[in-house]
Amino acid sequence: MISKILIANRGEIALRVLRACKELGIATVAVHSTADSDAMHVRLADESVCIGPPPSRDSYLNIHQIVAACEITGADAVHPGYGFLSENAKFADILDAHGITFIGPTADHIRIMGDKITAKQTAQDLGIPVVPGSAGEVLNDEDALKTARQIGYPVLIKATAGGGGRGMKVAKTEADLLEAFNTARSEAANAFGNDSVYMEKYLEKPRHIEIQVFGDGAGNAIHLGERDCSLQRRHQKIWEEANSPALNVEQRMKIGQICADAMKKLKYRGAGTIEFLYENGEFYFIEMNTRLQVEHPVTEAITGIDLVHEQIRVASGNGLSVTQDGIVFSGHAIECRINAEDPRTFVPSPGTITHFHAPGGLGVRVDSGAYAGYKIPPYYDSLIGKLIVHGRTRVECMMRLRRVLDEFVIDGIKTTLPLFQDLVSNPDIANGDYDIHWLEHYLAND
Ligand code: MV4
Fold it and tell me: Of 294, 346, 412, whose CA–CA distance to 12 is shortest?
């Protein structure tokens, strides 16, 4: 049994986890930096502990401070949220050694998926379709040339320790290859302290579609359908939706079943996301995230399942509350990420929110720790809230979103709200006709 959860995060996700704990009757501990004393999650938690100065590495990433906060408060479990320590295998190991439950997968599963070559090999062995590419690391120029000829151009060089788009280089033809290969290697060495790279066929116009999975750690696992996260800029997602406008029910259930079966074989525990590129009707695995994701509420909206409740249940050893047959996909949901940023340049815009009015009504959810008078600190991610809208159909969801965006007021800082007002009226978006490059082209041509 878990009786007290320390939430090792901040912002909207700390609040999200706190709400789930309250609903389950579990006591909560907030941790915060000196910059976050006024944060909503600190106010609403049963207890709070200041764990250090503003820089993340001294506070939200400071493992020793977080373990000490658990010991001081008697927290018997930690929810890491997303980002920060959520995919840090060492953190999971240290909590384990202290007899504190990490609400997430095993440290071994985090490690496997953190190394992108091992992750891809594991996915392939588990029967998941992967992008054609090198068998593991590409070691030298000769190996690179030979592998690229086998795959066929264009090819993409990726860092083994990368992920989320960092450290990738495209080679359109053999003339570009060695420069791309060696640049990728030296950038990987600089960024990750590891120059290992691998190679894949470069898919030119894919969508980014990810499958939500959940395991109980004992060989039972389910999928909760997909999210289409193609609308992104510089690897930051902006708008996510479920279902994907590109899939029909047969495709959804087929790829979902492949993922659930793979998670059963792996004895995966907790929430996970299997990321695919989707092009010409085919899925190609790229990475797996071993955490709850920012965009999880769109899945909650169409399934009615509280994913944080399930995480806590599984971590408590109680197993999942639903079986695959019990999951009913209903309607359509869209999430808009509200960032404290200029809506065109995406330059961060920290400062004080002077007026804040969240929209409401049927099918509307706002996850945010922001309020009138709240001062957004400049030290962290600029996500200040998420707007999630649900409707019976995609058309209804879009109509509702247009109404809801008109109602939302955040004054005193710049936010990405005006961008969504443009997108919700755009014909390509209305038609669901977009790929991973759409948003960057749209922003460039305007
Ligand atoms: C790719 C790709 C095209 N072909 N792999 C970027 C993030 C990282 N998770 C993988 N990424 C990509 N891998 C092959 N073989 C294009 C991307 C990519 C991308 C993927 C998902 C969402 C947005 C993206 C934006 C640019 C590139």
Answer: 294
